[in-house]
Amino acid sequence: MTNLPPDRATGALAGYLAEARTTRLFFLILTLYFVAQIALRLVLGGALETDEAEMLLMTPGLRWGYGPQLPLYNWLQTGLFTIFGETLFALSLLKNLLLWATYALLFVGLRAFVPARVAALSALSLFLIPDIAWEAERATTHSNMLLATISATIAGFLWSLRTGQWRHWALFGLAMGLGGIAKYNFWAIPAGLVLAALTIPEARQRLLSLRALIAPVIAAAIVAGPYLWMRANPDLALSSVGKMELSEEAARLIPEGVSLYLQGLVVLLILPTLVAAVLWVLSRRQTAETSAHWSVSLFQRTGMVLALAGLILVWVADVGHITPRWLLPIVLPLVIALYLHLSARLSRAATLGYLGTLALLAVLVFAGLSLDRYKDGARRDLDFMPLVQMIEDMDLPEDTLIVADFYVGGNLARIHPDWRILSDLPAGARMEEATQLLLLSRNMRAEQGLSQLAARVGWPYATEADYGAEQQIALPFHHGEKTLPLRLLHGTAR
Questions:
Q1: Distance from C-alpha of 146 to C-alpha of 133, rounded to nearest angstrom
Q2: What confidence score (pLDDT) does residue 255 get?
């Protein structure tokens, strides 16, 4: 800077200070928001959500695999449980740390090519996606890990394309490996980024280098252990494939999953698109502060490639069920591309309107989470103490194994950490030698006997055990008139 003319040096210094100020403000607001979210969860208290409860059942220490979900979230949760105990704070801390990292790492990645202001406004656009602003805060766990590793992968990839340095390719490989043991649909992101980069001359030159080969090598080393476990335990690893409802019949011309796929994309994209349209109208006469960078095309093409590939996969596999959050790897690049292009040309009024919209949405999220805690029939509002009392009154042997779904089992484990409780995943009890089994189920259909659940979880004595009379209990909610009925069945090995 000392070699520049005084006026240019002063301008450069002012620009640097402005960038630094924007960066500090971005991280300050981001951190305060998620600290407030942790505080809100602790203040609201109540029972655990299903995914929170799952962590109490699926963190028996460090293992290569735990069931149908990949293990990275479980590993980190196990670490936090070791430090803070199996507490609500440890559960909420990890969830919010990952969401914080999602925005922070995306900002760091975008800074490889765009100014801090554009990077901040583009990163915050993810908050307009309902499954990130709301569902990721309210309920999900492993999907939060997916989001964080996607942002880490984007950051590693962008900085690798900018510098071509070994360390950035190694970080890209590390992020890829972690994403590979976070969530199965993560792999769409690196595949889409690489394919899109090959179509852009400036990116292709960096990508087609020997240094880039270190990334897949590092990623393969990281995923090797969990993937070998999956191969050795396919019954546990694939126990949730049924969620997709793959058809075994002759494929229809237009499978039901196609409409669900398109609806899912619309649900995730409608709010970001509407806000972007309003911002464009307010800034249509504004000249862009910086020229459009090819990184915009990178994200556009990544999203388009993944959207087309996803549609083909759903069509060919005749998928019968799709949850919108499964489509997040497709939606994120599209939203990032839209706001990268838009943020560079926002007028001051449009910028203030955009930030005001995000602030209003944040207030609505806080209010919605508070209402969700106390509404009639809310999962967090269920009273599990009558069930605990009923089980205690049964006076079962101390080594009795309890089998329940994640929600019921995890909340019981929170109250009684000394009880032996397993989830009702297929084959989950195949290695258990307990001769006493207590089955719990929210399925109230009488034609589905609970003894069938003992066989499904692989209890070694399921087919020859003596089962007592089935019992029922209706658990009350602290607020409202609804109840949650449960069935119980005790079995003893012969």
A1: 15
A2: 78
d(CA 50, CA 37): 18
| Interior angle at CA 471, CA 467 and CA 473, nearest 5 | 150
* Spatial contact of 450 and 359, defined as CB atoms under 8 Å apart: no
Facing residues of 307 across strands? none
Q: What is the pLDDT of residue 289?
A: 59
Dist CA 25 CA 242 (whole Å): 45
Residues 188, 309: Cα–Cα separation, whole Å: 9
With b for 16 or more beta-carbon neighbours within 10 A and e for fewer, the 239-254 pattern comes to: beeeebeeeeeeeeee
230/287: higher pLDDT: 230
Residues 6+ apart with CB under 8 A from 167: none
Q: Across residues 61-85, what is the average pLDDT? A: 95
Determine the Cα–Cα distance for residues 77 and 56; give it in Å rounded to an integer: 9
Compute CA distances 332 → 115, 192, 390, 490, whole Å. Answer: 20, 12, 47, 48
Residue type, 281: V
What is each CA distance from 306 to 160, 297, 302, in whole angstroms?
Answer: 21, 14, 6
Written as six digits, the tokens of 454 are 């003992």
Instruction: Map residue 55 onto helix, strand or coil.
Output: helix
Name which of 80, 129, 75 is nearest 103 in CA terms.
129
Coil, helix or strand at residue 483: strand
**Measured distance CA(439)–CA(403) in Å, rounded:** 5
User: Computed over its alpha carbons, how large is the radius of gyration of the chain?
Assistant: 25
DSSP conformation class of 187: G
Of 331-340, 439-448, 467-476, which range is least confident? 439-448
φ and ψ of 401, to 5 deg = -95, 125
DSSP 423-480: E--TTTTTT---SEEEEEES---TTS-THHHHHHTT-TTGGG-EE---EEEEEEBSSS
Structure-block tokens of residue 58: 């699926």
- Give the C-alpha separation, 261 to 110, whole Å: 29
pLDDT at position 4, please? Answer: 59
Return the SS3 of 33. helix
CA distances from 467 to 147, 155, 444 (A): 45, 56, 18
Residues 6 or more apart whose CB falls under 8 angstroms from that of 47 comprise: 53, 379, 380, 381, 382, 383, 384, 411
What pLDDT is stored for residue 424 in this prediction? 93
Q: pLDDT (tens digit, 9 = 90+) per residue, 95-120?
A: 999 999 999 999 999 999 999 999 99
| Beta-sheet pairing, 401-404 with 436-441 | parallel
